[in-house]
Design a protein that fits this description.
about 260 residues, Rossmann fold, eight-stranded mixed beta sheet, 10 helices, 10 strands, SAM-dependent_MTases_sf, EC 2.1.1.-, O-methyltransferase
Length: about 260
């Protein structure tokens, strides 16, 4: 707990908004996407899905393949509490939907489906096709039922470990967006990052969740920022955004959203 508190205080000390940002690309991203107040149809789909899961009486026996939970002590987890305490927040879901729209994402990959709310924030509206991977069959089954209820045929669910699924991806397959939202372990995160590099192109965005979860995650984030193929990174505390645009000067930003 104290680690994240200290990490957040450091974040607040170093963070900025659009003022003082001298990169035209990042300035435009912040002003036209991060702080965009327009209403998107994707918001409505996500809000309906969130209401649905909050009202659910289902209890799932979750098999945790990641770094464990800081919220749940048992593997028997009510869907409503997963939605309330663990899943993507409404604020972050809306930011994700704006990013998908702003970057014109056609193909996306998600590591860590959980009960599907993050997936819906990516592919709940519009032409985006999402491939989402989840090792726990119980949560993935619930997510799949949610996708079917909302007729989200543009989401392909895969029940497999991240390592196995990444090894089986066609090496020619490219994504505009990759969301790494599971297995909050620094060593594993770096392995996934390195495996995913061949699936990016110049305009791809990688988003890493919980970059300040633990010392190992912060260390992994530092290694990712320093990677020779990474040009621009944005630390929003909860998420770390990584861009590979070769035309950009290599810079790291800490931004309040």
């Amino acid at each position: 707990m104290w680690f994240k508190v200290n990490a957040f205080l450091k974040f607040l000390w170093h963070s900025k908004n659009q003022h003082g940002i001298h990169s035209p690309f990042v300035y435009k991203l912040i002003t036209e996407c991060f702080y965009n107040k327009e209403h998107y149809e994707a918001y409505e789909v996500w809000d309906k899905a969130k209401k649905k899961v909050l009202e659910s009486n289902e209890v799932l026996e979750v098999e945790d393949f990641g770094a464990g939970s800081k919220v749940f002590r048992s593997n028997l987890r009510p869907v409503s509490k997963i939605a309330k305490h663990v899943s993507i927040s409404r604020k972050r879901a809306r930011l994700m939907s704006r990013l998908v729209e702003y970057l014109s994402v056609k193909n996306a990959l998600e590591l860590g489906t959980s009960i599907g709310l993050g997936s819906i924030s990516i592919a709940g509206h519009g032409p985006t096709h999402l491939k989402t991977i989840e090792a726990c069959s119980a949560t993935l089954d619930f997510a799949q039922s949610l996708f079917e209820e909302f007729k989200l045929t543009n989401i392909t669910s895969i029940n497999s470990s991240f390592t196995e699924s990444l090894a089986e991806l066609n090496s020619e397959e490219k994504f505009e967006l990759v969301f790494i939202d599971g297995h909050h372990d620094g060593k594993a995160t770096l392995q996934y990052f390195n495996s995913l590099l061949k699936h990016k192109h110049n305009d791809t965005l990688f988003i890493f969740d919980d970059i300040h979860w633990s010392p190992s995650m912060e260390k992994a984030w530092g290694t990712i920022k320093a990677h020779e193929e990474v040009q621009v990174t944005i630390d929003t505390f909860q998420w770390g955004l990584v861009f590979f645009r070769k035309e950009q000067v290599k810079q790291d930003f800490v931004i309040r959203v």
